[in-house]
User: Fold this.
Amino acid sequence: MTVLSIAVKELLGLFVDDGSLAIAILAWVGVVAGLAGWLGTGGALAGGLLFAGLVAILVESVLRRAQSR
Amino acid sequence: MDWTHVMPVVSAAFLGSFVEVVEAFTIILAVGTVRGWRPALQGTAAGLGLLAALVVLLGPLFSLIPLHALQLFVGVLLLLFGLRWLRKAILRSAGIIGLHDETKAFDKETAELKGAMAAHAAAADWLAAVTAFKAVVLEGVEVVFIVLAVGAGNGLIVPASLGALAACGLVLLIGVAVHRPLARVPENILKFVVGIMLSAFGTFWVLEGLGGSWPGADVAVLGLAMGYGLVALITVRWIKLQRSASEGARA
Assistant:
């Protein structure tokens, strides 16, 4: 059980460091997926929206960590 | 073969693997130095065997997943992994958190191993082998993930694997030559670049997985990488300016 819990913890650690960053990324992908049908995924709009949101999430997470120092 | 298609994949796999292999090498070197090369190599071989089994088991599974679902799944994992690396690299570049130091890591691992072996003298070889095994598996799982993630969405697992193998070979060559931790490897710059590339790949695959297509097709990955790189550099600069302004106000 201990070995399994360590393995699961290590595996999660590959993808999750700041929990709120991971949740925000997943939520934003969900939002863009939801909007994709409405916006249309063929053009640059959905891609631009996806990229802009991810950049905003990254910058917010970095600045929040920098200010909490 | 379209090199604009293949090179970003090979580069991401090579650089990402290089960082991880350097970290594993430090621990294996500590084990070899403290207890001898036999348990270090036994642990390493067992770890590599487990990783090979993982690739053999997971590789064919990917071919069973429909392409768009695979691209979305891999894209989301790449975003979680890549943005996490990029965040840490930005914070390190801005001086918010300390840089990873292979010499310190080597000293820490050596001290811990000596302590553990003193407490369990009868099982010293076993402890040493397990330490090497754990290092290879933990760092190697990241290598396996990077290879599968950057290669699976576009059928480029073989070139990505070659990039990772080249990184392993290069670290081994340098490590055998210098016989000490590779402390002069610019780890944070590599992590910065890999974080940018993996985030760009993740963003690309997520939209493709949703059934969309990027203007410029595969070349869009380079545009996304430039965008992430620019934002990351501006953020580092901004934090440094803020810090020097607040330190100036305090002085």
